[in-house]
Amino acid sequence: MTPTCADSLVVLDFETTGLSPDMGDRAIEIGAVRLEKGRVVERFQALMNPGKRVSSFIENYTGITNRMLSHAAPCDEVMEQFADFMGDHNLVAHNASFDKRFLDAELGRIYKSYHGDFACSLLVARRLYQDAPSHKLGALITYKNIPSGGGFHRALFDSEMTAKLWMTMLDDISQIITAQDVPFRLIQTLSKTPKRGVNTLLLAE
DNA sequence: TGCCAGGCCCTCTTTAGGGCCTT
Q: How far is the C-alpha of A155 from the C-alpha of A174, rounded, in Å?
């Protein structure tokens, strides 16, 4: 049986025009999957027109071109739809501080917010897989021998891969704490625990 | 044309600096 975490959560990923919404960067694609009892039960993917041209670097990095975005719905419209998809579920992202900044910024533009908790797969992975050569999403997928097919830097693909990594980490944690269910609050505590205290925390569960 | 940020975490640290990670 697949280990579970707090019944249902949403794993999301943004592609953006750059690194900082405070510097005027906008989201150009949102991808997300909803996990329920360890299975993907719903998917969301949409390009969104940021109202500005994206750089050639971003076109090359993501494969999302200005031509593609010219046919896309505006950010506000897409984020309205995504807010309905997301609801009040707990959220997961790889390097969540990045996605949280864009989520807050784009939701703020349509006067919305969310009420779930955010967890970061990068912070959890740094503690669980301290010997991994890198904690980039693609490197962790390779490190854990998770089949991918290789299509990184598109939002839905990256959110699917993050979800697979998340389930793998839950599996590994459940082996350590010998429990079928891994509480979301345990994951959040784990992601804030100093690395050398991780074993103590898990063995105490 | 080229650049921009911010949170986390380690160490040659804590009155700081720099690498990792995200696009």
A: 28
Write down the domain spans for chain A: 9-203
Query: A13 CA to B2 C1', in Å?
Result: 27
Estimate in Å the CA A82 to C1' B21 gap, whole number. Answer: 25
Instruction: Name the fold adopted by A9-203.
Output: Nucleotidyltransferase; domain 5 (3.30.420)
Cα distance between residue A112 and residue A133, in whole Å: 39
Interatomic CA–C1' length for residue A19 and nucleotide B9, angstroms: 20
The answer to whether residue A7 scores a pLDDT higher than 80 is: no
The closest nt to A123, taking CA to C1', is B8
Are the CB atoms for A26 and A51 separated by under 8 Å?
Answer: yes
Indicate if CB(A121) is under 7 A from strand B: no
Residues 81-100 of A with CB under 7 A from strand B: 94-95, 97-98
Tell me if A103 sits within 8 A of A114, measured CB to CB: yes
In terms of Cβ atoms closer than 10 Å to its own Cβ (0-12, 13-18, 19+), residue A171 is middle
Give whole-number Cα distances, A45 to A12, A87, A114, A116, A144, in Å.
10, 16, 19, 20, 26
Provide the pLDDT confidence category of residue A1 given band limits of 50, 70 and 90: very low
